[in-house]
Amino acid sequence: MWMDSNKGMLFYQCFTLTVRNVKIANPQRATGARGIATTSYQTRGDMEWLPGVGAAWKVADVEEGSTVAIFGLGGVGLAVAEGARLRGVAKIIGVDLNPDKFEIVGKRFGITDFVNPALCGEKKTSQVIKEMTEGGVDYSFECIGLTSSMEEAFNSTRTGAGKTVILGMEKQMLPISLGSHDLLRGRTICGTLFGGLKPKLDIPILVDSYLKKELNLDGFITHELSFEEINKAFDLLVKGKTIRCVLWIDK
């Protein structure tokens, strides 16, 4: 997508192909905005980052100095981290089974701490997070789509005002189990599909933030390969070594 600042209109790029985390880009279809070539934005900015940033800004409305936990450091989870980073959050805890998501990519989006559930021993992930934050985080985001992680995300928030936002889609549409006492004591939980964004109002603002180099979308790209290297791209995807990989047709 791109924005024509002269006409105040937003356009969508329909000539790129995304296969999960591998994106094929045709630079001949790229169109400029404000006289600047936006191929970078079009190929790096697939739609997954929108609900992540929106969830942090619009749904949770995280504040400067607050604490955040993000369950799942894929494209959506990292976008939540980016939104929280731009709001000046003091601590961002990433939860994932792949430590590379933190060391290689997560830190560039402001993630300060990392928890691997497989290494928590007998403790639950929520217990570890509560110990790290002296009682729980202010906001938690579930970006995986598992009932167990949804429950853990909820339990990792602090009593009284902790808020949990669900972005992951549970494949089996299974119910989650929450303590009624925790809800009565002030914790809240909600879901969101598009991060609470209103396209006509919010997307131009986000595009402008990217063009001003405030919103880091380029950081989502971990690899750029030629189309002939497509097998390598899928190999990186299977091994969990890439967040977004762009395959260039003309290289």
Helix/strand layout:
Elements: E1 2-4, E2 9-11, E3 17-19, E4 22-25, H1 39-44, H2 49-59, E5 67-71, H3 75-86, E6 91-95, H4 100-105, E7 113-115, H5 125-133, E8 139-142, H6 147-155, E9 163-166, H7 180-184, E10 188-191, H8 199-211, E11 221-226, H9 230-238, E12 244-248
Parallel strand pairs: 4-12, 5-6, 5-8, 6-7, 8-9, 9-10, 11-12
Antiparallel strand pairs: 1-2, 3-4
Record keyword descriptors for this entry:
globular; 251 residues; alpha/beta; Rossmann fold
Total E-strand runs: 12
Order of adjacent strands in the largest pleated sheet: 7-6-5-8-9-10
User: What oligomerization state is this entry in?
Assistant: single chain
Count of discrete structural domains? 2
Write down the overall geometry: globular
Query: On the 0-100 scale, what is the average pLDDT?
Result: 84
User: What is the beta-strand fraction?
Assistant: 15-25%
**Relative helix content:** 25-40%
Distance between the termini: 22 Å
Summarize the structure.
The chain is of the alpha/beta class and 251 residues long.
